[in-house]
């Protein structure tokens, strides 16, 4: 019987009728409350050209969050490394680590975080950088190390900060890389759950100890919508389901308000597609979520739980995160 840490993944979701500035301030407020509720980390994800997500300049927002908090770890979940030069990311996160020592995490993904047209606008040679992702992770790690002080090219700030790296993934490819480099592995089961168990098995079997990590460390991400009753939570979840419909159809409009009935909004094809994406989603009262989540944690043997919560009303979102913190004091894996 053991308790595990629990953390927040946030995208600075823009809701229907609100502004980008309001979305950013809601993220900052959520981080303040997450710290109060005992969450270990508050991570934000890089996305581009999406009306419903305001976290494109991820490192800038992380500084905004870190400034408002005191102890919670703040990081990226993740930075899409092929979009950037490893040196620039080392400088950005090295600066954050210099300003907020021992609180900064750097999660790395290889997906574009956007559509193909926008990905090409970000970086024309992006596909070449995708192929170099493993080498670029190693180079980034080197820039952040104390050993890099003897090199001609240094990240200033950055060298010697030893910002911990995390590999993000939604397939078995990322599992091989995380295992080979001996880095913690964060799986995007909150939207791509199909290969979760296969990827985790590969990662644990092939893991090689590293300077950063002696043993495998698995962090699956799930969606949580908690409320006083199952019925209320199901009602609140209709905003998330509409948002994921937008992922399927390419309509990335701001997240809409909840509705009483999804029937008129989606067809069977869309409903099935959304349900497939949301297979690792827990909706309901504390009792309902506690039972289902405990089963999930036993099945995955997770070392830490990362949680996304897509709820239209900010106060209801805070309430859901508070309720999960109460659940996690009793859930064991």
TrEMBL record:
It comes from the Bacteria. GO terms for cellular component: cytosol. Transmembrane segments: none annotated. Residues 18-241 form the Luciferase-like domain. One of its GO terms (molecular function) is oxidoreductase activity, acting on paired donors, with incorporation or reduction of molecular oxygen. Pfam families: Bac_luciferase (PF00296). To bacterial alkanal monooxygenase alpha and beta chains. This is Luciferase-like monooxygenase.
